[in-house]
Amino acid sequence: MTRTVLVTGGAKGVGYATASMFIKAGHKVAVTYRNNDVPADLVHNGALAIKCDISDSSQIANIFPQVEEAFGPVEILVANAGMTKDTLMLRMSENSWNEVIQTNLTSAYHLTKLALPKMVKGHWGRLIYISSVVAQMGVAGQVNYGASKAVLIGLARSLAREIASRSITVNVIVPGAIDTDMLNVLGQEKVNLMINQIPMQRAAAPEEIAAAIEFLASEQASYITGVVLPVDGGLAMGF
Length: 239
Prior knowledge:
Elements: E1 4-7, H1 13-24, E2 28-33, H2 40-44, E3 48-51, H3 57-70, E4 76-79, H4 94-122, E5 125-130, H5 134-137, H6 143-163, E6 168-175, H7 181-184, H8 188-197, H9 206-216, E7 228-231
Parallel strand pairs: 1-2, 1-4, 2-3, 4-5, 5-6, 6-7
Helix pairs in contact: 1-9, 3-4, 4-6
């Protein structure tokens, strides 16, 4: 069955891979972007590209009327967009804290709040949040990022209990190292140190994260809710 999908941060990395996968499966896909233009192949294949700074709740509110006009109500929400502003706690400004929390966490609240009424009315929905292994293991210099990604798990599990009776599932993907710009900006030395801690000895391809997202959004995953699914090559096993 064709569904309407909204993927935030769809211009590159996991968001782009996820949007591409949903399009290939025949779904109607909208993606948000902020700084990087959405690749032409997504638009050519029917994706609706919406420029949006998801740290701004008023801009988030403008997403849903556009998606509904083009495709109908959002049935699958993938809250993927995020950012980092890394520094040690002693040096972290309040602005660095607030900006990361607003982008990674508060945006998920606003997106969910706007998507949920139509999902409840339609008695079907998929809410998928992208967390991080940092939420489970901790990484020095990422207090703001780790906090924002950890709270997504609490949000998802509480919400899953609230709306399960409406045939709406709520799940969290927890990626480890992914071969994207966010990883590569760390520099090769830090990347190598991280890879050495991963039992599979490599970073994930964005498509491997997208495949897990696609499964949780599928009809086959209709009895899976409140799950925190690591896709990290074994990095955080046992956490």
